[in-house]
Amino acid sequence: MKYIATFYSQYDAIVFLKVLKDKNINAKAMPTPRKLSASCGICVVFDNQPNSDYNDYEVDAVYIEENGKYTAIFQN
Amino acid sequence: MLKKLKLPLVGVFLGLVSLALVAHGNPGNMGFCIACFLRDTSGALGLHNGPSYARPEVIGLILGAMIVSLITKEFSPKGGSAPITRFVLGACVMVGALVFLGCPTRMVIRMAGGDLNALVGLPGFVGGILAGMFFLNKGFTLKRTQKVAKTDGFALPVIAVLLLLGLLFVPALLSTSETGPGSMHAPLWIALAIGLVVGGVGFISRMCFVGGIRDSIMFKNFSMLSAFVALLVVMIIGNLIMGNFNLGFEGQPVAHNDGLWNFLGLGLVGFGSVLLGGCPFRQVVLAGSGNTDSVAAVFGMTFGAALAHNFSLASSSAGVSENGPWGFAIAAVIAVAIAVYNTFFNKKGSANA
Predict the structure, then answer these.
(1) ipTM > 0.90 (yes/no)
(2) Closest to A40 (Cβ–Cβ): which among B76, B139, B208?
(3) Which of B54, B110, B176, B193 is disulfide-compatible with B115, CB 3.0–4.6 A?
(4) Better pLDDT: B99 or A40
(5) CA-CA distance, B347 to B46, in Å (whole number)?
(6) Pairwise CB contact (< 8 Å): A9 & B136
(7) Which helix (H) or strand (E) holds B88?
């Protein structure tokens, strides 16, 4: 199981990636999976949820990915 | 296995249809050039006196993307992310494309025809993308996209339908060139059918020339790029079979051999496209699926084509026009100014760094 966050801009993704890394959460940026967005954007994949509100960041949506299926757990 | 092959198969498909379009009458190495299609359509609407023809391919692209996105329930009218800025960036991209003479799709298609001038443009394109990525990484944003009225999302497809009806029933209303690239075209139904299918495939695959290069550089993810490699290989083979492969700088169809301006022209296309979030092909496909920000970019490109031809900024087979470098400089300065302002001076409401 992993978490995937999508964003409005590439910069927002980079900022969120840095936040996760500062919290020692294993995270990486990658192209947004086709199923999640029709945009050309990038997403951040991470192992554990940060102990903060996603509203604090410019996050578009957060999904849990299990066996190739995505379930939205946050949508801005 | 099939999943991994999907994008290369899209490239193979795009290569085959590009060969078919040229075989049926489109200009040499034009294939599926979005900049060319929008420029010709701009002329058909009377916005300029350059190459003119309401390209059924672009009508098909818009409607194909709309139909497939409706079927997959992904048609989502949204916009409001700096549409006027996107319009201006679209115009800048088109000026760059018409200095080079083609969009990124045609760059690959020209390379496949043996046109080494396009190979000179490639590093410019990549350089432009890298420059754009610099701004993206530093905080460039055109602000959030929001949901918009459904009528907004359907506006461009309706315009496409009206254009098609005009082409079918009152063609005299639309300008059509009697000579030059605008006069050379595949039969309407073939071009329309190909456009419809490519629009649908483009929507499903999310194919984007800029995205392919960005993913390769940023994530070492080459899946999108594999589509372009497949397109290149299929078209080289096809051109060799059809006797259309002519390796060199001279005598290439609808191309010039001024290396500096091939490099710079595509550099501006890459730069502007990164800021827009996708290449011209991707913008048209997104526009068909209800994204009005992309509609603004497509309108901007159409307007840019009119500027390029009315003010003689566009290059020709004879070379770069006298006004071309000036037009290019103005477009480049505007694009860079947009990038700088929206990166360093327009942070309010963006990310919480």
Answers:
(1) no
(2) B208
(3) B110
(4) B99
(5) 40
(6) yes
(7) helix B83-100
In angstroms, what CA-CA distances link B112 with B30, B211, B224, B316?
A: 11, 20, 18, 20
What DSSP letter does each residue of B149-216 carry, written as one string?
Answer: -HHHHHHHHHHHHHHHHHHHH-GGGS---SSSGGG----HHHHHHHHHHHHHHHHHHT--HHHHHHHH
pTM of the model: 0.93
Contacts of A42 in chain B (CB under 8 A): 218-219
- Domain ranges (residues) in chain A: 2-75
Of B203, B210, B221, nearest to A30 by CB-CB distance is B221
Within 8 A by CB and 6+ apart from B335, the residues are: B89, B92, B268, B271, B272, B275
Q: Taking a C-beta distance cutoff of 8 angstroms, is the pair B10, B207 a contact?
A: yes
Residue B215 contacts A where some CB pair is shorter than 8 Å: yes
Candidates B341, B300, B319, B322; CA nearest to B95 is B300
Query: From CA B352, how far away is CA B349, in angstroms rounded?
Result: 8
Contact across the interface for A15 and B351, Cβ inside 8 Å = yes
What angle do the packed helices B292-310 and B324-344 form, to 10 degrees?
150
B349 belongs to a structural domain: no
Closest CA to B329 of B313, B318, B340, B344: B313
Query: Which residues, in sequence order, are bridge partners of residue B147?
Result: B78
> Looking at residue B172, what is its pLDDT?
95
CA of residue A63 relative to chain centroid, distance = 7
| Interface test with chain B among A7, A8, A11, by most B beta carbons within 10 Å | A11
Domain extent for B174:
2-344
Distance in angstroms (rounded) separating the CA atoms of residues B31 and B104: 12
B84 touches chain A (CB under 8 A): no
Cross-chain residue pair B137–A34, CB shorter than 8 Å: no
Residue B353 lies in a domain: no
Tell if the CB–CB gap between A42 and B218 is shorter than 8 Å.
Answer: yes
Structural domain contains residue B352: no
Tens digit of each residue's pLDDT (9 = 90 or more) over B169-225: 999 999 999 998 899 999 999 999 999 999 999 999 989 999 899 889 988 889 889
Question: Does a structural domain hold residue B107?
Answer: yes
